[in-house]
Design a protein that fits this description.
The protein folds into three domains: about 300 residues, Rossmann fold (3-Layer(aba) Sandwich), CATH 3.40.50; about 160 residues, Rossmann fold; about 130 residues, Rossmann fold (3-Layer(aba) Sandwich). It contains 25 helices and 17 strands. Helix 21 packs across helix 25. It is globular and about 80 Å long. It binds thiamine diphosphate, 1-deoxy-D-xylulose-5-phosphate (DXP) and magnesium ion. The site of magnesium ion (MG) has 6 residues, from loops. Pathway: Metabolic intermediate biosynthesis; 1-deoxy-D-xylulose 5-phosphate biosynthesis; 1-deoxy-D-xylulose 5-phosphate from D-glyceraldehyde 3-phosphate and pyruvate: step 1/1.
């Protein structure tokens, strides 16, 4: 057997030698190799994954932790006929390499390249798209039940007997979400055969939190890894010859009643584990047995792995290289962005700390994203007033609502895309009761490499339709500081403020503490006459650039920053409509958002009856793939160039320029 490549010894830009992996074109090829060879393939796969991500950046740590599991599952099962679901999908890079996408793996997360998550349109080996966590058990159960129904009817649509396996791999972090429990509750009561692999690496993005995480740790420490003999004996006991089954089950049931099983057993799963998820000699025979078991019951296989496994810099880092930029394979040093203005996230955290210094009722809630939302900094300063509730967005919102009823001032710091999961909680628990919960919506707008699944596109639309909601969007980081102060001061009901991913503009220094803004009042930055551009959010600089361009063409342009989508600055909107021939609104959000709110108001005021030319510029009514944010906004038609083109086309002076949208 050749010596496996050691990634730390590879020259940074040279792909590793992968003689066995080169012979794997599709997962079925893995069936031609011995266990020893599969171990070598796993080593080569790990080296290939490290090298690829060193060139693209991405979610490396989770992928490194599942290399052996990926090889073993593909070697034992018959994908894509057998359905393999990766929860979140951020750990699926080795899976992509094994499933016909190796030639494109160095395009990961780049414009036009492979997605950083699983995606149905990308491969038949991705039976379910993911990126938001904790969906795999539900989707897997749905597939298993569909299989059972088709079996009952004898044949499936393609005309063959449907006996596929369904395997859902879910992490310990993802296991903290309500959806995972809802799915287990349902699965445990059904006699459908589903294999759930709990990939327990004792990490979420940050160290995991909560009672379930503590429970899993206790489970592991109270039960040493099963030896191979124990693994096989346990599985054989559970899946004996048919005649022995009834007696065995009665016996196990009695023992379970006496000793108490794991939580998973209590929920109706057959629990196997814990086993070492890097030990191929254990994984292969165990998975084969689970594959061949005929019994109709859900199985939970508990594997213990290390996030970042096999790459020293990842194993040694605090976040286990959850998400990395491009890096040097030898040293592990990640590419650093040149020093620039502070990120919005940082300004948010500093501003919130400044408010919380003055008001001890301010508390902050995150759903497993302390570093992403800046609440790690808040938590260092106010550990008792910071709550990481795990991946539990619904709970985070209602938990905050509960605190608000008692006079606290909760800030739910959450990515726009993840608040989608807690919509009913926002409507029913917060808005209906007019509770002053503050939503700090980070990653608003297009987010770049994470792509459509993570786009913060919809919050203006889904919050804008709720009565009494105050909605603000920051044009720059200074405005963000003011909006944090405004949200802290606003006790009359719920408030949401949105801001984009990444750095601000560095136009002006951000004060230690923001100034409270007048609710529902916008500001005018530039006065003109022909065209008015009303911006909501961080496209303001693009609007100002467009105005320069239009002015140079003899079209004086007014530029205003609405600041609020709700309540709308109706006086400002009406004036802009009255005094200009063309009114353009622009936002980093979907259709049915700010532009729609402005349009609705103006329609009732009769502005269109007297000939106003109104053009709402929003994200297109389409999902926008991963790319650089700049390229995404070009695609979306929300750049200065597109604003100019829209204004000219609307005025009928298009001189070769096309409107952003027909
Ligand atoms: C609904 C939702 N909330 C938050 C996230 C952000 N997120 C992505 S991965 C992750 C941690 C997942 O931990 P785990 O399932 O244990 O996987 P690991 O990275 O440890 O392999 C989080 C919080 C998400 N993708 N989806
Ligand atoms: C997989 C996942 O959901 C997160 O890791 C996400 O990719 C983080 O995005 P940011 O890099 O914007 O924090
Ligand atoms: Mg984990």
């Amino acid at each position: 057997m050749a010596t496996p490549p050691n990634p730390a010894r590879l020259p940074p830009n040279q792909p590793p030698a992968t003689p066995l992996l080169d012979r794997v074109r599709v997962p079925a090829d893995l069936k031609n190799f011995s266990a020893e060879q599969l171990k070598q393939i796993a080593d080569e796969l790990r080296a290939e994954t490290i090298h690829a991500v060193s060139q693209t950046g991405g979610h490396l740590g989770a992928s490194l932790g599942v290399v052996e599991l990926t090889v073993a599952i593909h070697a034992v099962f018959d994908t894509p006929k057998d359905r393999l679901l990766w929860d979140v999908g951020h750990q699926a890079y080795p899976h992509k390499i094994l499933t016909g996408r190796r030639d494109r793996i160095r395009t990961l997360r780049q414009g036009g390249g492979l997605s950083g998550f699983t995606r149905r349109s990308e491969s038949e080996y991705d039976p379910f798209g993911a990126a938001h966590s904790s969906t795999s058990i539900s989707a897997g159960l749905g597939m298993a039940v569909a299989r059972d129904l088709k079996r009952l009817s004898g044949k499936n649509a393609a005309g063959y007997r449907d006996d596929r396996n369904v395997i859902a791999v879910i992490g310990d972090g993802a296991m903290s979400a309500g959806m995972a429990y809802e799915a287990m509750n349902n699965a445990g009561a059904m006699k459908s055969r589903l294999i759930v692999v709990l990939n327990d690496n004792d990490m979420s993005i940050a160290p995991p939190v909560g009672a379930m995480s503590a429970y899993l740790s206790r489970l592991i420490s109270s039960r040493p890894f099963l030896s191979l003999r124990e693994v096989m004996a346990k599985v054989a006991r559970r899946f004996p010859a048919p005649l022995e089954r009834a007696a065995r089950r009665a016996d196990e049931f009695a023992r379970g009643m006496l000793t108490g099983g794991t939580l998973f057993e209590e929920l109706g799963f057959y629990y196997v584990g814990p086993i070492d998820g890097h030990n191929m000699d254990h994984l292969l025979p165990l998975l084969r047995n689970l594959r061949d078991a005929e019994e109709g019951a859900p199985i939970l296989l508990h594997v213990v792995t290390r996030k970042g496994k096999g790459y020293a810099p990842a194993e040694a880092s605090a976040d286990k290289y959850h998400a990395v930029s491009k890096f040097n394979v030898v040293t592990g040093d990640q590419a650093k962005a040149p020093p620039g203005p502070p990120t919005y996230t940082k300004v948010f955290a500093q501003s919130l700390i400044a408010e919380a210094e003055q008001d001890d009722r301010i508390v902050a809630v995150t759903a497993a994203m302390p570093s992403g939302t800046g609440l790690d900094a808040f938590g260092k300063r106010f550990p008792k007033r910071t709550f990481d509730v795990g991946i539990a967005e619904q709970h985070a919102v209602t938990f905050a609502a509960g605190m608000a009823t008692e006079g606290m001032k909760p800030f739910v710091a959450i990515y726009s895309t993840f608040l989608q999961r807690a919509y009913d909680q926002v409507v029913h628990d917060v808005a209906l009761q007019k509770l002053p919960v503050r939503f700090a919506l980070d990653r608003a707008g297009l987010v770049g490499a994470d792509g459509a699944t993570h786009a913060g596109a919809y919050d203006i639309a889904y919050l804008g339709c709720l009565p009494d909601m105050v909605l603000m969007a920051s044009a720059d980081e200074l405005e963000l500081a003011h909006m944090v102060a405004t949200a802290a001061a606003h006790d009359a009901g719920p408030v949401a403020l949105r801001f984009p991913r990444g750095e601000g503009f560095g136009l002006e220094p951000v004060p230690a503490r923001g100034t409270v803004l007048e609710i529902g009042k916008g500001r005018v930055l530039r006065e003109g006459s022909k065209v008015a551009i009303l911006s909501y959010g961080a496209r303001l600089q693009e609007c100002l650039r467009a105005a320069e361009d239009l002015a140079a063409r003899g079209l004086p342009c007014t530029v205003a920053d609405a600041r609020f989508a709700k309540p709308l600055d109706t006086a400002l909107v009406e004036r802009l409509a009255r005094e200009h021939e063309v009114l353009i609104t622009i936002e980093e959000g979907s259709v049915c958002g700010f532009g729609a709110l402005v349009m609705q108001h103006l329609a009732w005021k009769g502005a269109f009856d007297t000939g106003l030319k109104f053009r709402p510029m929003t994200l297109p009514d389409a999902f926008i793939d991963h790319d650089s944010p700049k390229a995404q906004y070009e695609t979306a038609g929300l750049s200065a160039r597109s604003i100019v083109a829209t204004a000219l086309a609307t005025l009928g002076e298009a001189a070769g320029l096309q409107p952003a949208r027909a």
